[in-house]
Amino acid sequence: MEPTIELTTWFREARGWRTSVLLVFCLGLTLVPVHAQTSMFVPGPTFSPPLNPLYVLTGDFNNDNVRDFVVLSDEGTGVPANAYVFLGNGDGTFKPPNSYPLGTLGLSMPAIPALGVLAINNNGPPIQDLVVPIAQSNTVNVLVGKGDGTFLPFTTYTVDEHPTAAVVAEEDGTAYPELAVVATGTNNQPSVSILLGLGDATFGPATIIPLANSPTSIGFGYLRHGLFNTDLVIGTSSGIAVLLGNGKGTFQPEVDYPLSSGVTSVAVDDFNGDSFPDIAATHGNVVSILLGNGDGTFQAPRDYPVGNGARSIFVAQALLASDFTNDRHDDLVVTNLDDNTFSVLLGNGDGTFQPALTFPVNGTGPNSIGVGDFNSDAAPDLVVTTKSGSASGSSGSALIFLNTRGTSATVICSPDPVQSGQPTTCTATYGAALPAMPIPTGNVTFGISNAALPAVCSGSLDATGKMQCQGGAFLGIGGWDVRADYSGDKNYNPGSFFSPTVLIVDALNFNPPGPLSSTAAAGQTAQFALLLQDMVGYGGSISLTCTGAPLGATCSVPANVKLPAQINATVSTTSRMVAVAPRRHSSPWLWAMGILGLVLLPGVYRRNGRHTKFARTLPFCFVLFLASCGSGNSGNTSNPNGTPAGTYTLTVTATAGGLKSSISLILTVQ
To answer: What is the C-alpha to C-alpha distance for residues 262 and 215, in angstroms, rounded to an integer?
Structure first.
């Protein structure tokens, strides 16, 4: 049975955008069967601008390690074209976009844009900038990124007439990036304009190099093994034009590689793993692959059928671990303008590709595509722009397609921190990144990512997607990044997941500044001075206990301390002798009177002729009174609950999670 999904849609207004959010559940609209495809995409959020989108580019515009994208639109009635920047949240959703005009009305329609790092930033991470050719004004407009996801207003540079595409070429013997912009040219003389960078995101005047055929797209690479001059690969109306660079913005005469129809887009990458760049080009309904020889020349093309109107091509690079199946082989994705689909060609790693996997697009005329892991599941997702919506007269959209081959994972170690030399138990839990997908199976290997150490342990995920590993006793003192390497299975990509927290291996130690033994008489107090420290600066709370106190004694320590801590362990003992109050001596005359009364009272009772209860009990009460007043002595008596004499070992223990340290104290009671 084919898997199906149900799409629930709602709308909200956000800065003039109508946002369609698509939730994926089981049952509903039928997609391509899982068993038929090793890569699977399902619809994610959809963004519909007020102006029809033309191009999309993906990047990280605010340097938060989360993928973002920018959509470049057409002009509208009374409105210039804009760039709309969507900053990702890392979970497949995006913040409302910021918009940036690309020019003035009538002079703002973009051609194929490019992203690149135009300024040398020695004091921080690289910052991406946006380069947009404007055909109507014969310019290239540069929007410099600020590194926080926003861009400065555009700066304009003049190029040859009617530019069609741009690329940011890396250092070309000048130490600074340069721009290459192709154009149909003045008087229909095709050309490429070269603008050398000054290192601060500004550029010198353009140098114009004529071309033989009308250009449509452009890429660059280092096509000659071991030589790092920028070489240009240009898609033209008749095939591929290659310009080998001499360095510093000059080039050798072009070499053409004819194809069966005009090229719509090109990409340069190493598809067969020989370290020589290759070329992929879309034209008609095929993708042509030209394998490089490493000397700037290329082999005859090999064609792979895709949909009709193949237009925009994107290479999912294995070098960035972003190929769709994470098999370390480069894959390609292509939009099919006339079929309202996109096609994925999975690479075999030898320069060949598997038959295309084709996916429908909910819109008309998909004209551009970008790749990025938008939901942080280690499986590249897609964003596709369309010229218009499915309904007649509706506007185009930017459509997110989420890759179902991604997983979500957690890695938790306990105890953490752990005492040096003791093991800890780490648990990896894997699940599907998207709903209605099975629990992952396969193997997990635990390792340490910030040191060249052997794997800690490995094993299979259980039925709940968990795998536990106990080990790490060999780890030295310090912080360790725990990594779980997942093997993948038929539904999910392999990949690595890192614990969000560093495993702390510490040594909690007592370092007493004074003696560890003390002598006290019973009833006295003994005190031990202790210093508690660790090796890595653990900042949490440390719990303390003291055990082993003898009978009739107590040992007290603070319940909790912060490191480093001066601690006093106080032992209070109990005396074995107890003072008793002196007893009063009875007088001899009381004893004489008492004996006389005992002799005379019976006769008195007989003379009265009767006995009373009082008479019978009175003699005994009197005897008891005399006994209580009898002789005694004063002074001390023994206390059975006092602290016995002897030598005792007490133990003070400090604990914090897996950290534990104990110290022995010797107490002698006299």
So the answer is: 9
Residue with token string 């947009």 = 132
Virtual CA dihedral for 162, 164, 167, 172, nearest 10 degrees?
A: -50
Give 90-93's long-range contacts (Cβ < 8 A, gap of 24+).
Answer: 90/64, 90/66, 90/374, 90/375, 90/376, 91/375, 91/376, 92/44, 92/45, 92/374, 92/375, 92/381, 92/400, 92/402, 93/21, 93/45
Quickly count: other Cβ atoms within 10 Å of residue 645's Cβ: 12
User: pLDDT band at residue 449, thresholds of 50, 70 and 90?
Assistant: confident
C-alpha atoms less than 13 angstroms from C-alpha of 478 in its C-beta half-sphere: 9
| 165-219: pLDDT as tens digits | 999 997 666 678 999 999 999 999 999 999 999 999 999 999 999 999 999 999 9
Query: What distance in Å separates the CA atoms of residue 446 and residue 460, rounded to the nearest whole number?
Result: 11
- Token digits for 284? 């008609």
178 φ, ψ (degrees, to nearest 5)? -130, 160
Give counts: helices (H), strands (E), the chain: 2, 54
> How many alpha carbons fall within 13 Å on the CB side of residue 113?
32
Sheet holding 178-183, edge to edge: 163-169, 178-183, 191-196, 207-210
| Residue 634 in this model has a pLDDT that exceeds 60 | no
